Amino acid sequence: MSKDSFNSLLRDIRACTLCAEVLPEGPRPVVQASESARILVVGQAPGRRVHETGIPFNDPSGDRLRDWMGVDRETFYDVSRVNVVPMGFCYPGTGASGDLPPRPECAKAWRAQLMAAMKGVELTLVIGQYAIAWHLGTRRRKTLTETVQAWRDYWPDHVVLPHPSPRNNVWLKRNPWFEGDVLPPLRERIRELL
Ligand code: SF4
């Protein structure tokens, strides 16, 4: 894909209104992507705060994710080095138990072509069940914990992470092997790719 085609694809995504009728705050696709970045971060969908600022992971979850990756904000938001492409590009609204799932129309419409266009990607950080389902398919394990624990099976091109939200502190306390076993090689690999 030429640079013009890549930019045209991004323009089309940013102008997308495909599921506007069901988005409570209307479309505002939040995507950070280039052909050159070697690292891809795949989350679920923007929350309200990200929707308001248009900046992905601009919240406490993002701070923890950057800490896990061993990168500062400047590096994380450098589109030539890090792509951030969630499963749904717009804020889907909030239900009784938190943010709603990413809109299913989004991945169907855009994901395959954008993934094919991001030719530089060598490492994908996969966060959340929708990202795991799309990126690992039948290779995922029964539970999130088992999938994260099997990280060597997906290394070195994919790493599944638990959600970095502060609400996930209980999981982190119960699974200390994550910080001890997974994060050091992850940081090392990210250092190599930057
Ligand atoms: S969520 Fe995706 S499909 Fe829906 S309007 Fe936003 S960019 Fe388009």
Brief characterization of the structure:
It is built from ten helices and six strands. It has 194 residues and is α/β, with parallel strands linked by helices.
Question: Which terms summarize this structure?
Answer:
194 residues; alpha/beta; Uracil-DNA Glycosylase, subunit E; four-stranded parallel beta sheet; two-stranded antiparallel ribbon; 45% helix; globular; binds iron/sulfur cluster; Uracil-DNA_glycosylase-like; Uracil-DNA_glycosylase-like_sf; IclR family transcriptional regulator
Descriptive overview:
The strands form two sheets. Strands 2-1-5-6 form a four-stranded parallel beta sheet, sandwiched between helices. A hairpin with a 2-residue loop joins strand 3 and strand 4. The model has no long low-confidence stretch (mean pLDDT 95). The chain is globular, with a radius of gyration of 16 Å. The longest helix is centred in the last third of the chain and has 17 residues, at 177-193. It has ten helices and six strands. The protein is α/β, with parallel strands linked by helices. Residues 13, 16-20, 27, 29, 88-90, 103, 105-106, 109 line the site of iron/sulfur cluster (SF4). Iron/sulfur cluster binds next to helix 5. It comes from Sneathiella chinensis. This is IclR family transcriptional regulator. Residues 30-187 form the Uracil-DNA glycosylase-like domain.
